[in-house]
Amino acid sequence: MTDLQERMLLLLKEIDEICRKHDITYFLFAGTALGAARHKGFIPWDDDTDIIMDLENYEKFLSVIHEELKEGRALDWVSEDSEYLFTYARYIDTTTTALQRHTVFGGCTPGVKVDIFCAIPTFSDEALREKHKMDVLGFAEVLCTTGRMGMYRPEGFYEVFEREKKKQQKAGREKYIRDNLHELMHRADGETEKCLLFSGMMSNTKTYDRCIFDEAVYVPYEDTKLPVSKYNDLFSTQHIAESWPDLPPHLEKPRHLMFVDLDRPYDVYKKQLFEKIDVKKVREASIKRKENNLYERETFRDVLINNQKIRNLATELDIRKRFAARDPELTALQMAELLDGYIEGQMDRVNKTYGLGVDAGEEIFQATLNMLLQLGRYYDAKSIIRTCTSAGIIAVDDAFAKGAAEKADLCAGLMEAAFRYGDREKAKALLDEAGDLTGSRPYEAVENWLAQEEGVPGYQAYLKAFGEPKNGFVLQEMIEDGMPIDSIFEVEEEKKPSPDKKMLRATVNSLMTGKPAKKPSIWSDVVTQAEFEAEAARRGLLSKQNKKRYNKYRIWKKMKRQKAEDTFDAYAKVFTEMEKIGK
To answer: pLDDT digit string (tens) for 481-517?
Structure first.
């Protein structure tokens, strides 16, 4: 555990003691529950802690928590502080500082904390449930004035946001919260089949089966035991995805906290910081930037989708030519380098958000999956299958994709049995089932591990077979076995896809505006801009209507750009100054 995780674990233990005392049922949630399932503790790189309760237990918790708060602890909740930013409570260590970008300005207590979410009853009827969901999202987005609660929002959301913003301006923040908080949380009282996450923190508010919140089971978590849902597998599937057991690439880094000091409270920084930074100005710019972002995602949705299709086309044309001219004797590693841009394109967040992908043909799709499984990159393989299925590039029942997904699961099981649990019998049994995986890196890694004497750390065999760690649980093994942190992260950074993204943006701008690009016109060494332009025109991506929309978007973006840059500069200065004060 990191020092930060030790502090978060202490807070979890305190909450557990309070909940046991008052017979309150709660569950580890999101990444914290995922850590329990994968690592029997924190995900090694995590810097955030989450729990969840159903509405009945949530309200019981809020009714008793203040009598249980000890010195150095606080609870943030919007019904008690109308300036609070979120639709979930926070249990906080006030002796520490832990800041996110949008919490610099106030609106919450900036210390190490546990986020406490609530699952509220929602409607079985889909139309009523979707309306309930949008209203919750609108309420949450209006409360969090200085930060975006999600990267992307459902179509039609900006109208909901504007409606809720006007309601708040007319009633005042405190009355707006009184008028809406209880009604939203209790709107579906009596409905028991479905629950809704009462939060806008996700890209879209999640819906869960009610049975998930019926029974808690205590499981090992670091040096203690903490509760997860009896149906934690179903919970994780509904909250994250069916891929939740798959461990992400080890290069994943924490995304929550921008500044942490476990020894001093924020007040130590606040006075000095506010003397050097015009926080009011930064706050106002942040609010405007958030609203501009919501407006952009809604108003220019067609432009954003069309631009993404152009980028996907660039990747498609590039990889088709590279693949056709490839040496048939390429090794798996060389094939990985060749297909790198294609893989990154399929895993692009915008593609996943809008149901898009890179359609480079069945042969390239299959070659990519075979290569990824050969190298043990099962997480990437399943991610690409999901993207291509969602985008309609491959059929949901595509036999090859289903077979590859099964192999990815077997690949995961092999490495998990050996390197997470040290289960030699299960590892041997899975090796017998491996079939086409024979000779792959996961297969070889497990064989090497089985050949070692008892007690030899699994990660040594893994590294022997793989050359460098590729998955999160390997990182965990390395940390647990005492390998220095510096050496863990001594791996090559991922290569940028070809064609270069900046060059591609310049090309898109040139094509859509009719003005010469500032950069060279040939942005790929295998596809010329003329070829690219001809194909983009053939597919209707360069139509007059699309160009008209793009130019309208470009003018709007240009007007907003400087303010956005000023906001980022001011944000950066805040955290730079805090580092100076900390020293």
So the answer is: 555 544 444 444 444 445 566 777 777 778 888 777 6
CB proximity list for 40: less than 8 A, separation 6 or greater: 219, 220, 221, 222
| Contact assessment for residue 115 and residue 51, using Cβ atoms and an 8 Å cutoff | yes
DSSP state of 214: S
**How far, in Å, CA of 314 to CA of 390, rounded?**
20
- Residue 512 is given by DSSP the state H
Confidence of residue 9 (pLDDT cuts 50, 70, 90): very high
Establish how many alpha carbons lie within 13 A of residue 56's alpha carbon, considering only the half-sphere containing its beta carbon. 10
Decide: 342 and 334 in contact? Cβ < 8 Å.
no
Task: Kindly report the pTM of this predicted structure.
Answer: 0.78
| Helix ranges (DSSP H) in 73-125 | none
* 133's tokens: 């969901």
458 contacts: CB under 8 Å, gap ≥ 6: 418, 419, 422, 449, 477
β partners of residue 226? 219
**Count of Cβ atoms closer than 10 Å to residue 75 Cβ:** 19
β 27-28/50-54 pair status: antiparallel
Per-residue model confidence as pLDDT tens digits over 440-480: 888 887 887 787 665 555 556 555 555 555 554 554 555 55
The pLDDT tens digits for 163-181 are 999 999 999 999 999 999 9
Confirm if 369 and 381 have CB atoms less than 8 A apart.
yes
More confident residue, 475 or 131: 131
The C-alpha atoms of residue 112 and residue 262 are separated, in whole angstroms, by 8
How many C-beta neighbours within 10 Å does residue 429 have? 13
User: How do 112-122 and 50-54 pair as beta strands?
Assistant: parallel
Using only C-alpha atoms, what is the Rg of the chain? Answer: 25
What span, in angstroms and rounded, lies between the C-alpha atoms of 175 and 147? 22
